[in-house]
What we know:
The protein is an alpha+beta fold. The chain is about 20% helix and about 30% strand. The longest helix is centred in the N-terminal third of the chain and has 19 residues, at about 1-20. It is elongated, with a radius of gyration of 21 Å.
Amino acid sequence: MKKLLSFIMIFVFAFTIANAQFKVMLVDDDNNGAEATPIVDALTAWGGIYGTFTTGVAGQDTLPPVYADIQDYDMVIWYTGNDGITTLWDVSDTTGVGAGAIKFNDAITQFVAAGGILWIDGLDFVYDIYGSAPDDFAAGDFVYDVLGISQYLSQSKADDGGTGVSQMDKSTSNVITTVDPVTWVYATLWYADGYAINDDAVALYEMGPSGYALEGQVSAFYYNNIITSSLRIAKLNTQANVNTIVNEMITAAENGSFPVAVENLKNNGSVKLFPNPVSDIATISLSNNTNDSEVSIFDISGKLVYNLKVKAGQNAIINTSNFASGLYTIKILSNNTISSTKMSVVK
């Protein structure tokens, strides 16, 4: 009997560890043919759990993923390669694009709101919506509020006299990656985007070298849990550099370097938490819990510290005995709606 119990405990422990592993989904959204193989190779070298979804190859998935395809992953790498298909965006209503009507497709909208890390890399995913640079954005515009872009400044080749950018230099604020400079299998990269970013966004790479016409314009950065880059990582100069940058970005995501913007979530009144403050056990009552729900809890830095799936008609019971004292944000995904509330843990 003792041997049986030991076996069960080992099995449960192994199952728990397996399910706790960080998972990455690669969405290949390149309109000019599949080129993401080096990224797949980098994910294989990383050694974690990953999946792939192709939107642009005839006979395969020609539509964007639905939320069910990506909800079990912690990070999505959305790769547009040489030319995105624009399935990243919901283009059902482009009225007043400059005023913020544009938004992510439904799956990515839910994924980001649920705390998932989104890394968009490649060319033309902004151009496909806004056309040629420049464009200015302000509070109320989607790309400003969600991506952290204040200006779409330029594209290499189109706006640099026809040369293209020969390298991306690591920004001084970049503590995530070590590849410096970024170069490609080509002498220069055409149609890479240059941005100005808002004060809370963090630059990772800038166009270079010194003396280049678009020198210093930001081409890779992150804002909360969304990384935006025009690096075209599948075409870096060596597979070793692809491996390094992919591994380092995933490691940073896994370590909580890209915290979800929990302050942008709103409490629609359907989330009831008691007691609050709490020391050991908290109960979340969901008045509109007609479908299964997912409860996620973030600490004050935005790091995900707790996740629980709740069946329809049930309350969520949260054991906070191992939580440190402090303020936490609880986010509930139910009926395709995101709700949130604050929880104070006092020991």
